[in-house]
Amino acid sequence: MDYGSMVGESFEYSKEAVVGKWNKWVMLIIATILFGLPLMGYAMKILRGEKPAPEVDDWGTLFIDGIKAFIVYLIYAIPIIIVYAILMVVGIGAMMTGDAGAIAGMGIILVGMLVCFVLAIIIAVFEIIGMVRFARTGSIGEAFNFSAIRATIDKMGWVPYIIALVVLIVCGVVFGIVVGILMLIPILGILLYLCLISPWAIFVARYVCQLYDSAGA
Question: How large is the average pLDDT for residues 10-32?
Answer without folding.
Answer: 95
